[in-house]
């Protein structure tokens, strides 16, 4: 039972990112990521993305650093890997399950209820939006290209909050991404 990380080399958000995987279980991966201080939203179906600045925290959490090829081989051997070609279907299953648990219909393109996982990036389409909220009723971050996207995000968030409150929660926590068809 070991958690592995590769060398950060994927640029985004002003830093470079690496991948963190388990050779045994997602639970082990989540526990190690939490010990290293990685936020749950850094989880991406079978791995965590981690910024270069977290290297010391990962080492302190017992992570073993390996090359990209070895990391990929270990993830494949673990049986936890979700192939690139299978990722859209895996996201769609997650979205459908989270929407069904809330009673949300219609279902957005991507939905994550809770703090573990992240929605796809904002597509370059008119009316598209991506929203995220980390605490019920807290600040909501909305990305949109236009006013139609901002209105659609506000409408979805209102529905998500109402559904979460109907289930006894204070409001929606998570992320969503959608765009007109």
How would you explain this protein's 3D organization?
The structure is a single chain. This protein has 181 residues and is of the alpha+beta class. The protein has two domains: 3-81, no CATH class; 87-178, no CATH class. The protein contains five helices and nine strands. The model has no long low-confidence stretch (mean pLDDT 96).
Could you provide a short overview of the structure?
With 181 residues, the protein is α+β, with helices and mostly antiparallel strands. It is 35% helix and 22% strand. Residues 3-77 form the DUF4031 domain.
Label this structure with key terms.
181 residues; alpha+beta; 2 domains; five-stranded mixed beta sheet; four-stranded antiparallel beta sheet; elongated
């Amino acid at each position: 039972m070991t958690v592995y990380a590769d060398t950060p080399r994927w640029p985004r958000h002003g830093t470079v990112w690496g991948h963190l995987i388990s050779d045994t279980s997602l639970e082990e991966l989540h526990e190690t990521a939490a010990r290293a201080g990685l936020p749950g939203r850094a989880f991406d179906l079978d791995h965590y993305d981690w910024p270069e600045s977290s290297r010391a925290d990962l080492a302190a959490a017992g992570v073993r650093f390996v090359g990209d090829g070895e990391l990929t081989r270990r993830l494949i051997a673990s049986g936890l890997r979700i192939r690139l070609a299978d990722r859209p279907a895996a996201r769609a299953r997650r979205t459908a399950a989270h929407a069904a648990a809330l009673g949300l219909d219609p279902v957005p393109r991507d939905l994550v209820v809770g703090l573990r996982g992240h929605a796809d990036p904002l597509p370059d389409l008119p009316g598209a939006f991506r929203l995220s909220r980390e605490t019920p009723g807290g600040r909501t971050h909305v990305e949109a290209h236009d006013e139609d996207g901002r209105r659609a995000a506000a409408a979805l968030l209102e529905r998500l909050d109402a559904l979460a409150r109907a289930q006894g929660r204070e409001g929606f926590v998570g992320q969503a991404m959608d765009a007109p068809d």
